[in-house]
Structure formats: structure tokens, C-alpha cells
């Protein structure tokens, strides 16, 4: 990556300090170097110009060589969202179907909605149209890192990687592997286990050409899910992981019908998770999406292997899959992030996924009798925002680079604006009447209230700027 | 109301035919007379200009005297949303707290968040600011009829009625009655049962002055909920209902703690619903919000008395109240509509409430073992849109006036626009890049898919025009 102009960000910064707590930096400044890295942070200055002056002096930077962005009163900088299965799991190919799921459950939904659309994306003009829209939309919703399930088509998957790189979204791009002749339609499957591995290698080679250090775009090994794959294909991908260290993404235990099917297809295993374990796919670089119905033993296996889980609350509800128990997984020591799982879920927004994570945790709580456990099951505003940022970063192995604001981390961030309501109940903007969405501030809110209101009613209109690795990749006027 | 210019609407119209089915009118035209009533409907013309010509000829109207609005290709007209507790239950006074509920449950939440804010609205400048914003927001989200819980303050409640009338939102405005000295804070309660009735009468008198026929704004009798009220106050309001025929709104069976409390406070009754029955408050003009935990017997009592229920799925989840069972209530023959219950729920949007109704029905389904019943519990796109329109209209007794497009009904409607994605994955608008929200159409969707995508990803940006009784009350450029 060629060096960029240095950045200086001034104002209020909000990020997760711990799983339970947000850190609010007021009258602060963050300096970002020419490689997109956070070089220094100043906080608690008398005002932001003092913070700026301190930083410039400390770093010996010339203000003229620096682009300055100051958050206005009430605005704040927040880390970019990391869907692990940050949208580690957006199924880019299915973006076009968002909101179309009828009353179906998983297996019907694949047959009816998903496979036909995915297959059609071998038409590269169509793939460009859908993928470009998906990247544009997720960036505009503040998703700076996405892990994508593309399709089985190599050229279309390579195109997705090209588009992520040129549009500046940090991405893990996975060519979907599915070679089982019995479980996949004839028009949409890999010819053999060897074919799954070989075509995955072709995508890896392509991405290595366009982004040799995988600084922005990385391949990710992507067996669709156990029912679609032969044990041979999955073992082949595990071998590829051991050779390359590349991350892995797949699905686990999304719904009861699927779990029964896996038990029939792999009779020699003890559980769905065990299928992956036997194939060598449970690794600290593996993300399993859903994990709705995993048993105690499966959770222990996941925890022990340091495998990660992508919680997809919206999809799990839309498809009536079930309620994944985040608190319980956390208690087991499992790292959890958020996924949108479009089009199983309807929304491309990780903010919406965070909101849904809070809501689903309340449905989990409703089923618990014991008062203290009921209370614990509920996820707080702080906790779901952790899932959306640092939690996701841990899942894709980027916890030292993104998800928070610390010296040495990269500047993947969004600038958030809310409405200020005047005495007549009106909101004024330069441009148009609702340019800033409908999160209304009356002036008496605490900073905690502000963030809660953003979580619950915010949308892409509140995300005014988005940076990845210091590069401005989205801007809303 | 003074006569307005006549209207002619051209294009595609979508509304509920039955609880299960949407009706799509293409190349159609609707004529609206000077009183805001639908005078005639033409459908299935060769094109919309033919439909227009037919209508003008049939009615003998001169085109020069008519304002014509034509929906562009892909746009459609949809009935305005009727929150029964159309926002029959928006708690206008609590709008300012949207998204701020922490991990609290109902009773704490009232103490911590609700009563202090409500009490502060006796400051009329503050009330104007909050209420105007709330009306503006709900109109912009397509809510043409709202039933509001205001506060105990007569002047502030009258101000809310004034604002609804001047801003053109059809509304039921309720002064909140709460006289129990033990259950309400000293700083925020009615002095006595007589005071509750007397101050309600003052609001009725005010509304009768500003809108004598209650054509746009109507009073609604509003005992807050049983724990807040003496039996005497509730009986007094029931007597007022018998004298005036005015509608009634209150809450029932929102959460277990509340239900226990009611049992303690009213030991002579058999259930929460029975409290209202004994006081004479169960009537065909009564709307009970929530009804989450009602028993078979209570549901029968509600059905038998033709009392209505406002389903508030967002609030019920946010406050971990529980999952109301809409299919079960429908099976009992109970009319159900939707409420946002802001700020228990976070969103002022009935479209969001409809979405949440679909989601919550899936959580209800998850707890059901039997396959067929599990399947039945899920609400479809068509069914939740019915709840949002005709269902709500039935709850507030307006089923012959609003909620659908039929001759003799009034023109309460919204014009909906979605995005059309071009070959590069871009969306173009005259004004700004995301002026139409993020519901993306790729051109291959059926009309059913379009409506589903709107339901699941739509927001106020998709609502371009809103009319109440033929008057344009919101316009988005």
C-alpha cells in the first residue's frame, strides 16, 4: 500500500475498554501515520486544539502535512464494525435477496432462494452489480471488516476480492466449497473434493497477486457446511490451512433438521462439531457461524480448540433456527463476534445485528427461571457493541489491528452523528431534513444514553465517514 | 374541515385484502373527493392514463380541478399505518427516551426513566418540543393514525391534541389517569379518583372545541394501568365511556411482577383482565396494550367483550416482558393491532413494529414442539402488514374509514419508493446518494418480494408522501 497523508482526528472517541465497559475519550486527539496506524493518542486535554497541539509536538509532525477531521459537538468516533463473520458471514452473493425468506427454514431456503441466485452469479456482470452494491452498503453501515462467503465460481470470487480492494473494505473472501453429489444440485457444485481444494487455491493465488501481504484482502477457506462437503474435501481444506495458516469459516448447528442430517451423513461422528474436529477444521483461526444448538460437549470442544463463533441473531430468528446463547459461550471462554448472515438475516448492518443480539438475549432470558441467571443472560448495550468491534476482531485474528483505539492499531473507524432537536421540536441540517437519521437528542442525555440511542435507532445515516487503514472509504454529505 | 382540492392517485396500490393476502392493484387510479374520501377506484386499465381518463369520465370531474400524483415505476401506494395503540401506544411523552431502557424491567423502568420525564412535560415549552418531534417522526414513518398516552397534565395533553390537529395526524389523545397514592410518586399523580375523571373531562372539552366532530383528533379515556389506579377512578372512567361512547386504552398483563402486584392490589378479582371487567372497562371500544401473559380465561373474556389488543413486540422484548401470541389471540377471535410503546420499545416506526411482530412470532414458534402448530405460529409478511393497517383500524373503531383502499374510506396513505440498482451496483437519485434508504431492487423481484424487502429493510426514507384524510401531511424530497 502506498503511503497516504497523515491524519489527525479530534473530538470524542468511544470504544470498548472491556467486554462490559465503554471508554469515552473527550477533548481527545488521535494521530494516524502514513501507513494507517495509530501513532499516538491524547486524552483529557483542556480542549481539542490543545490535544492537537500536544500531539503534533510529541510526534514532531508539521500540521500542513496532516489532514485534520474534527468531530463536532455531540459527534463521536467509533471503531469500524467487524462482522466476524464481521460480516464474516454476509454471503455477498445473497445480498440481492435481503428480506426475502418467506416462512422457510434453512434447508428449504437453500434450495428455493440461495442456490439459484448463487449459481447465477457466474455471470460476472451480474456478480459485479450485486457485489459492488453489497460492499457499498456494508461500508455505508460502518462495516470496515467483512468476511464473505462468495460462490463456487472462481472468477466471480476473484472479482469480489478485486472490488473489496479497490473500494477499500478490509475483507476475508471465501470461495465456497461444496462437493457432495447427493446434497448439492447438479447445476451448482464442485466436481470433486480435489476440485474444491484446487479452485480454492486459484482464489488464494489471485489474492496473493493483488494484495501480496493480505494487508486488506485475505483469502479464507470456506467449506459451505458439513452437509454440502465430503470428509475428503474438508480434510483437504484443513491441510491447506496447515500449509498456509489461512483462516477458515463455515457453519455449525444452525437448526435441528440440519443437525439430524449431519448425524445421518456422518454416522461415525459424535456431533456436528465433531465432524469438523475429525476433519481438522477446528483451529484458533476458524469461525463457526450460528452455533445455535451446540451441546455442552460441543461448546467445550470449540473452547478447547480456540475456535471462534459468529453469532447471527437476525438470521437465526428470521429462519426460526433458534436462540444462540452468547453469555453461555462467553462463560465457556469462547470468542464471539457478530454476523449478518444476509440473506438468512435481512439486514446488511452490524449495528442492526448488535441490536438483534440484545433482543435475542432477552428471548434467551425469558426461558430461564432462575432470577440471577435470567438477568445475566441479557446482553447490555456495551456488550453488544463489544461483539460488533473487538469481539469480531478477535474472531478473525485482527485483535491487535482493529476493533479499538490504541497506539499501534490501524485506523478502521467511523464518525457518528446524531440529531440535535431545537425548541420547536425541529432538527436542522444544511442539506435535507432527515440527513442524519432519526436518533433525536434533546440535550439532556448522558454519553451513555447517546450511545444507547444510536444502537437502538441508528442507521447508515448516522455514519458520516468511514476509514479503513487510514483511508477514507465512505463519506456521507 | 374545509374542503380541499380533489386528488387523483395513479399507479400501483398495495393493501390487505384479508388477514392472509395482499391485494395488488396495477395500472390503477384512485379518486379522492374534497372531504378526503375515496370516491372511486379503477384497476387493471391498459395504463394509468387510461385509468385516469375512465375515472374522470365516471365522476364527471374536470382534470384542472384535481391534483394528480402518479407513482413512478416500482413505487406503490400503501395504507398509512394505524398503530393501535397505532401508535395507540406511543407514549408521546416518552419519545425523548427512545432507546434508553438499560436492562430494566417494567416496574423499575417506570420509576427510573418514565415518571421523571413525564412529570417534566408540564413545562409546556418542553412538551411542545418533544410532542412536535414525536408527531413529525411518526408521520415521517407513515403512521397516519396514532393513539397517544400523554401525561397527567391537562395543558400539556391539550397541547398534544392541538399539535396533532395542526400537523394533520389522526390521533386519539389520552390524558393519563393515575390516582393511587401508594403506587405513584407524590410528585406525579392525580389527587383523587374524582380528579382523574374531572381532568379527563377537561381534555375532552378542549378537543371538542378544536375538532367538534372528532374527525381528526379524538379524546381517549386512559387509565394508565390497574396498579396506578383506584377501582373508583377506573369505574369513573367506565361511566364516562358509557355517557360519551369514547374509546378507552390501557395496559394489561405485561410482565409477571406486574401481574403479581395486581393480584395483591385487587385481591377480590380473579385475574388482571378481571380487574378491568369488574370496573366496566372491557368494551368493544377498549384497547389493551401488551396482553403478554393472559390466560385462556382472560383471552376468552377479552374476546367475548370484543375488547381489542395492541401487540407491542419491540417493547415486550426490550423490557424482557415476554412473547405475546398473536396467532393464538386471532384464533380466539380477538382483534389485534400494533403499538410501538416508545420508550419501552425503541422505535417510533410501525414498520419496525411489524418487522418485530414477525420476529417475535418466530420466537413463539421456537418454543412449540408440534410441527404444524410451530409453523402456524409464524406470522407472514402479509399478516404483519395487516396488523399494521386494517388490524389497527379495527382496534380503534376506524375499520370503515382507514386501513385499506375502498370506496367510501378516507385517503390515509403513504407513497413508498425503493431503490433501483444499476449495472454497476450503484443507485442514482437526483438529490443525494441514499435518499431512498437501503432497500435495493435488482429488477428480478416479484411484487411480493418488493413488499417483503420493504418490510424488512425499509425505513422512513422509503416513505415519500403521507396523506391523512386527503391532506398531504408529510413530504420527503
TrEMBL record, chains A, B:
GO terms for cellular component: cytosol. Its EC number is 3.5.4.3. This is Probable guanine deaminase. Residues 78-473 form the Amidohydrolase-related domain. It is an enzyme of class 3 (hydrolase). Catalyzes the hydrolytic deamination of guanine, producing xanthine and ammonia. InterPro entries: Amidohydro-rel, Metal-dep_hydrolase_composite, Metal_Hydrolase, Metallo-dep_hydrolases. The lineage of its organism: Eukaryota, Fungi, Dikarya, Ascomycota, Pezizomycotina. It comes from the Eukaryota. It catalyses: guanine + H2O + H(+) = xanthine + NH4(+). Pathway: Purine metabolism; guanine degradation; xanthine from guanine: step 1/1. Belongs to the metallo-dependent hydrolases superfamily. ATZ/TRZ family. Keywords: Hydrolase, Metal-binding, Zinc. It comes from Trichoderma aggressivum f. europaeum. SUPFAM superfamilies: Metallo-dependent hydrolases.
